[in-house]
Specification:
Layout: H1 6-9, H2 18-28, E1 84-93, E2 99-100, E3 105-109, E4 121-124, E5 127-130, E6 138-142, E7 148-154, E8 165-172, E9 175-183, H3 186-193, H4 218-221, E10 224-227, E11 233-241
C-alpha cells in the first residue's frame, strides 16, 4: 500500500477546526523525506514474515518542529488521565533476516482519551481545544540491545472518521525508514470505551475493517494488546524496516 494523502482518505469526516488545518499544512513543509527503503509492501507482523511494513500517512498532527529532547522520554503521558498502556515496540531489519535492530529511533504520537492531539488546535466532542503549547502523548525512544523501544502512555481515545491508532516513525542514523500506524483489537477498544474514564465519548463507529487507512494493512499493523494485573494494558508490536 502506497503512502496515502490524509485529506483524501479521511477528509471531511475528521472533526478539526480551521486552525488545525492550517497547522497541518504548515507542518507538511517540515516533513522529512523518506529513504527509499521505506517503500511499502504487504507484510505481517508475525515472526514468519520478513517484509517491510506498510507506509501510512503521518498526518494530520505530526509536529515535526518539536521533535527534540523535551519528548525524548519513556513516559509520554505528561499528566493526561486514562487507562495505563505499556508499549513495547520491536524493530526488525528485513535486510538481515529480520533480526532485531538496536539503536533505531522510534517516534510515536497519538491522541488523548478524548480524541485530542497535543501541539495543535483541534476540535472534537468537547469543543475546540488549543493544545499548541503541549506535547502530551508524544515520545521518542531508542531501541535497546534487544531491539525494543518502550513507552508508558494511556490508551488512546478516538476522533470522528478514524479508528483507534498510534502513529509511529522509525529512523536509523537520523534517516527516516518508515512511517506507519499501529491498530488495536476491536474487543479491547470496546472494553476500554465502556470504562468510566472513556464512556462519556462512547464507542467509535469506525472500525478496523472500515477505517480508510488501516483496513487494507491490518494484518501487519494490528498490535497484540492484553490486560495486565495493574488494571492497564500491555501492547506488543513489531515493525519491519529495511536498513
Amino acid at each position: 500500500m502506497k503512502r496515502k494523502d490524509f485529506l483524501l482518505k479521511a477528509g471531511a469526516s475528521v472533526l478539526m477546526g480551521p486552525v488545525a488545518l492550517v497547522a497541518c499544512k504548515s507542518e507538511e513543509t517540515l516533513s522529512p523525506t523518506s529513504n527509499s527503503s521505506s517503500s511499502s509492501s504487504s507484510s505481517s507482523s508475525s515472526s514468519s514474515t520478513c517484509k517491510v511494513g506498510d507506509t501510512e500517512t503521518d498526518g494530520p498532527y505530526p509536529l515535526y518542529n518539536k521533535r527534540d529532547a523535551s519528548i525524548t522520554h519513556a513516559d509520554i503521558t505528561e499528566g493526561k488521565t486514562g487507562i495505563p498502556l505499556n508499549m513495547m515496540i520491536a524493530v526488525k531489519n528485513v535486510n538481515a533476516n529480520c533480526t532485531l535492530l538496536a539503536n533505531a529511533r522510534v517516534d510515536v504520537w497519538h491522541c488523548d482519551k478524548d480524541g485530542y492531539y497535543s501541539g495543535y488546535t483541534n476540535t472534537g466532542y468537547l469543543g475546540t481545544q488549543d493544545n499548541t503549547a503541549k506535547t502530551f502523548c508524544r515520545g521518542i525512544a531508542t531501541t535497546d540491545a534487544s531491539g525494543i523501544a518502550k513507552f508508558t502512555t494511556i490508551y488512546p481515545g478516538w476522533y470522528q472518521g478514524r479508528v483507534t491508532h498510534i502513529h509511529a516513525q522509525i529512523y536509523v542514523n537520523n534517516v527516516l525508514k518508515l512511517t506507519t500506524q499501529i491498530a488495536f483489537p476491536e474487543e479491547i477498544n470496546t472494553e476500554v470505551y465502556n470504562s468510566d474514564l472513556y464512556k462519556a465519548h462512547g464507542q467509535n463507529s469506525t472500525k478496523n475493517s472500515t477505517d480508510s487507512i488501516i483496513r487494507d494493512s491490518l494484518s501487519n499493523e494490528l498490535a497484540s494488546v492484553k490486560p495486565n494485573a495493574s488494571g492497564g494494558y500491555e501492547l506488543d508490536h513489531t515493525i519491519f524496516i529495511a536498513v
